[in-house]
């Protein structure tokens, strides 16, 4: 049995009980009474700002009022009408930047209606009925290919199936769910929630999953265009940015997304080796998820280092506070200049940065951090694009899409790389496809 | 600290807060503890005739209306008068009164509607040392089916008759407790006064069904699948009670008749409002049943602090102070013109004022870019609904248009006091002299 102080990168730094506790629900769900009290705080605003702040435009005041009136499963239907991933979004949305950030009670008292937790209460109640609330329209005879079984692809597939189309969803991974299954910290979606949600979503029928199939390797866009009436691409961001610092190739310098995905799929999380000292480079949710889970595995020292100031971090304030609460140190305005070590990482040399009108400047001053492991969380990239398409601003350029092909989710412009924007874009693409196929605008 | 000592029809108590006749005043154990907690007086739960006592149901006696946090907004009950033997109650009353001579102790009574029954019970209670009697002409459930309670209180002639019997056969101060389940509260009050009552107390509970079980399709509270109407009380009934108290306080026929105010008193402020409308004492039940006897401490300290702020040294300076300002609609000043004003610094842009005004009122609130809400003076009739639904205190206020300015809605210049009685649209208008 190891301890947090054991040198190197080793498994089992904490006992099984501690590990289980660290990976259980970060925030306990509301019970019925808590939900009603929380729901009663909603003012049922006219043309509510929270709706406008939600990328899927869930009718939040209505679903909260349905909870208050004792009908959480009716509330769930209101949520799913706008966002079939309402359950996942309730868990992972940066609500303080979206609905709760615009709640008038946030403006008035700094204490918004707890929309995220209420949404979880409603969707949990809805899923607990063990029924699927949507039925398919009569078959249209149209077949649509969806590439990517993440939130964008499945949101699109569900809406298309509802309209009576037959859908085939392709994904290179072995399990559906996309980032909900592979990209979100385990403690945010315990009890295999992501798979349960996908199973529930698929109960609408008319959606066939073909897993382990990769675009470009096993099939081409042109082939899909021939075989199907329409194609939706929700392929996400498959590449990761490089540090471009010497030593990046040393052992134990890893992509945070890969670490997070491994944790999600691990049956025995304690068996995952983790460093005594872990350094995470980045300022987004991925950095937070990697750092918090390093701590949860028993790393003694975990430091997030972000090159700009705190206000620029894309991780929500709530997430940052949570990381600090579990003992993660967050250092701002420092960039890695070299990773040192004999074969494997041993320490990282950082230089302080300054924000100047010309951009970020690396200063001569810096510091060293001991690091048995270095996780890179500095953003994801499109990776290899499908044939004939071009990128613009790091996303697929919609004007480069061939006829009959739609795009949505993290690979498409207009979103914030969030589950909720992916769900919105998938849904809207489905409506556009439906209109195009059925001759309506 | 202001002196809260109260002298109500000769009955003295250290403060005006009495526990109403109800389960909290059912027995010696409760009443002693209530006095120890600080209650100024107690109206002992209603006694009936000698002989086998009434029986209560053995299922739920209460139904409830909740706010979202299970805050008790109103309770109804189907409990009857005391179900303990008369002799036991009388022995306990005597014992308690002997030990607490400075506290008010009134005995509530309800016996069949014949003179002998009343004469007989009055003889039994004369030597308890109690300060007075309260005639329960109010209970709307159970006993009313047997010709007592509100069955008496709904017939002014019966009220007058029984009150006269009581005043004939007893020297004790007599309070008549009125039922609100009538159309004009002044009639039973007038009858009580004609019968010689020293005071009235009101309101008793309101006929009610609190809710319906939508699985069993039965009213609550539910006894073996059936329910019956019960008496409603608590914060929800206060506005009804305040109006009935004020009606008696300002009616020429009953003006000056002492009133003990009852109906949803929960805090000092509720009590002060009843007193300002003419109540010389207040009676409390639901608040005590919800929170326990200790709540009287808040009432005592709160009323005292209020009186200090106002410079009142005696509760007499508060009692009835608002009565002159209760009037008929026809005497309200139609030349008092106000307009809603929204304080943009306080506004949190929820838009409830807009929804209320646009959908259900006078379309007098505009929504401007950036969710800025403003009042259209040319449409605003000053109904106050926006103020009522605004979640932020003092964000929307009603501002009076000074005399001589033009109301942009009507185009009429604000003039001197004028009411409906002389308004040109009133076919019954009397020409101004």
UniProtKB/TrEMBL annotation, chain A:
| InterPro entries registered for this protein in UniProt | DPD_II, FAD/NAD-bd_sf, FAD/NAD-binding_dom, Helical_ferredxn
Q: Which Gene3D superfamilies match?
A: Alpha-helical ferredoxin, FAD/NAD(P)-binding domain
- Which ranges carry the Dihydroprymidine dehydrogenase domain? 21-129
Domain (FAD/NAD(P)-binding): residue spans on this chain: 143-426
Superkingdom, taxonomy of origin? Bacteria
* Gene Ontology terms, MF aspect: iron-sulfur cluster binding; oxidoreductase activity
Q: Which PANTHER family match?
A: GLUTAMATE SYNTHASE [NADPH] SMALL CHAIN, GLUTAMATE SYNTHASE [NADPH] SMALL CHAIN-RELATED
Q: What is the protein's name according to its record?
A: NAD(P)-dependent oxidoreductase
UniProtKB/TrEMBL annotation, chain B:
Q: Which reaction equations make up its catalytic activity?
A: 5,6-dihydrouracil + NAD(+) = uracil + NADH + H(+); 5,6-dihydrothymine + NAD(+) = thymine + NADH + H(+)
The record's section on PROSITE patterns has:
4FE4S_FER_1, 4FE4S_FER_2
Could you say which enzyme class this protein belongs to? oxidoreductase
| Protein name as annotated | dihydrouracil dehydrogenase (NAD(+))
Superkingdom field: Bacteria
Its assembly, as annotated, is: Heterotetramer of 2 PreA and 2 PreT subunits.
Entry's Gene Ontology molecular function annotations: dihydropyrimidine dehydrogenase (NAD+) activity; iron-sulfur cluster binding; metal ion binding
- Function noted in UniProt: Involved in pyrimidine base degradation. Catalyzes physiologically the reduction of uracil to 5,6-dihydrouracil (DHU) by using NADH as a specific cosubstrate. It also catalyzes the reverse reaction and the reduction of thymine to 5,6-dihydrothymine (DHT).
Which residues does the UniProt record annotate as the domain 4Fe-4S ferredoxin-type? Answer: 338-370, 371-401
- EC no.? 1.3.1.1
**InterPro entries referenced in this protein's UniProt entry, alphabetically:** 4Fe4S_Fe-S-bd (IPR017896), 4Fe4S_Fe_S_CS (IPR017900), Aldolase_TIM (IPR013785), Dihydroorotate_DH_cat (IPR005720)
User: What are the protein's UniProt keywords?
Assistant: Iron, Iron-sulfur, Metal-binding, Oxidoreductase
Q: Which GO terms describe its cellular component?
A: cytoplasm
Which species is the source of this protein?
Answer: Rubellimicrobium rubrum
Q: Which family does it belong to?
A: Belongs to the dihydropyrimidine dehydrogenase family.
